[in-house]
Structure formats: structure tokens, C-alpha cells
Design a protein that fits this description.
The chain is mainly β. It has a single domain (about 20-115), classed as Immunoglobulin-like, CATH 2.60.40.10. The protein has one helix and eight strands. The strands form two sheets. It has a five-stranded mixed β-sheet with strand order 2-8-7-4-5, with no helix packed on it. It has a three-stranded antiparallel β-sheet with strand order 1-3-6, with no helix packed on it. β4 and β5 form a beta hairpin. It is elongated.
Length: about 120
């Protein structure tokens, strides 16, 4: 009984039981704007601002996906908090989802809907 009590007391001050990281990353889509009309096959700039009060930004993974084209890119925002990539989109209406995940599994996401039309061939 005394040994059990001593073990319990010594573990109560252990950092293992004190998970102080309750910070969740946040993500804001900077580009493209919702309802933007884009050209299929042309690079489109996907840009987001990421913040996380607890974790270094280089430890946050940002994934940008399209419901039509799947995963478009995965980036780390670096020290500036900005992340960018320039994929092309297939023809159609896309829901673009930007998600930020920290090393503790906490995440945030934002979405915009855009339309990618066929390029004008000038014919």
C-alpha cells in the first residue's frame, strides 16, 4: 500500500501527465477567392496563411486538395506562415480544401469552390 502511494505521488508531477499543448493550428486561404473562374490546364496559385501558437511552423504540414483532382500539394509554411503551390486543375467545379496539421494531430481546414473552364484555343 505504501509503495503504491509513493508511485502515485511521484507520477503526479511527471510531465507525461501534463500535456500543456492545447494549441490548434489555423489556416486562412489567401488565393484563390471563392467562386473564382480559372482556366483548366493553366497553373493556379494556391496560397494560405498558417499560424500555430504552440508549434514551430516548420513542423506544421499543409495539404491542398481538390475533390476532383485529389491531392494537389503538401507543403510546410516555414517561418513566415505562408505556403504556396501552383498546380493545374482539370475542367469542372472544384472544392479546394486547405488543411494544416501539427505534430500533435491537431488540425484546421478551410475550403473554397472554384470553376476551371476549358482554355480558349482561339479557333
Amino acid at each position: 500500500m505504501i509503495a503504491t502511494l509513493l508511485i502515485g505521488l511521484s507520477l503526479s508531477g511527471c510531465a507525461f501527465f501534463d500535456n500543456a499543448n492545447t494549441s490548434t493550428p489555423t489556416i486562412e486561404i489567401l488565393s484563390p477567392e471563392s467562386d473564382a473562374e480559372l482556366l483548366s490546364g493553366e497553373p493556379v496559385t494556391l496560397r494560405a496563411a498558417v499560424s500555430d501558437a504552440q508549434d514551430p511552423l516548420v513542423m506544421v504540414a499543409v495539404t491542398m486538395t481538390s475533390d476532383l483532382d485529389g491531392e494537389l500539394c503538401v507543403r510546410a509554411p516555414g517561418t513566415t506562415g505562408l505556403v504556396e503551390c501552383s498546380p493545374s486543375l482539370s475542367v469542372g467545379t472544384h472544392v479546394l480544401t486547405f488543411s494544416a496539421s501539427d505534430p500533435d494531430g491537431r488540425s484546421d481546414e478551410a475550403s473554397v469552390t472554384v470553376f476551371a473552364g476549358e482554355t480558349d484555343t482561339g479557333g
